[in-house]
Amino acid sequence: MNLDDVKNPKELGDYLKNLRLKKNISLEEINQETKIRIKYLNAIEEGNFDAIPGGEVYLKGFLKNYAEAVGINSNEILKKYKEISAPKSQEFQQENTAVKKDRRLIIDEERPKSKVPKIPLLLVGLVFVIALTTLSFLKTQPDTSLEPPKTTVNSDLPSENDTSPTLETEEERKEELLNQISLASDDGRNITYTVSGNSINVKFEVINDRCWIRVNSDGIVTFEGTLNKGESKSFEAKNKLTIKIGNPPVVKVTLNGKEIEIPGNYPKTLLIMRNQ
């Protein structure tokens, strides 16, 4: 299959997989070179692009790194992905327009042709007289609003010793909101995250080779040096943490307890800011 014949994500995945097999390259080799997890590499070859986390930014980055790992032009792969993803939204719009048109036709056919008769003025006057009579009757009734309200005992109410079953759920929800992490931007060289916790905590682990890093915590350089394979280091900031990474593919980065992806095999700048 030629790249020009690819019409959908499934065929694009098959195309990439066939190229990899022809060059006798394993998924493990691509994983070691790109640091993309095996399950995401399988998702690419299956055309299951919705399984890639991070949206369009990460998907395009994964496709670019995969293509470079098997020795093909990554720009052509990204161009083909753009071609096959655009018709899908156009087709959806056309189908949605057709459904709305059919719905209008059905409503027009079912709508009665006869006009609703106007209410005679006599009926309006009769309603007005009834309303005045009712109002006069209510004014003549004794006012019972001053009577003390009756007290009822609800046996289903919990006692003072009962513990609300929702307390633990509320605490977990609050903790989850405090630790919320969002990808703000990624232009290929600079990656920005925002967090909602009380502080910023980042852990670096070198899983292969070695990596040079420079850390600026709240405007102060707190570390600059090279970490070797198997070494790890943690950094903390109150509002802002800037980390320059010399060799992103060989490190595992954990932000506030959650692992984040640093795609690409060239130096990156990671900026993390806390929501005020």
UniProtKB/TrEMBL annotation:
Keywords: Membrane, Transmembrane, Transmembrane helix. The chain crosses the membrane at residues 119-138. GO terms for molecular function: DNA binding. Pfam families: HTH_25 (PF13413), RodZ_C (PF13464). Residues 151-165 have a biased composition (Polar residues). It comes from the Bacteria. Residues 141-172 are annotated as: Disordered. Residues 208-265 form the Cytoskeleton protein RodZ-like C-terminal domain. This is Cytoskeleton protein RodZ. It comes from Fervidicola ferrireducens. The lineage of its organism: Bacteria, Bacillati, Bacillota, Clostridia, Thermosediminibacterales. The gene is rodZ.
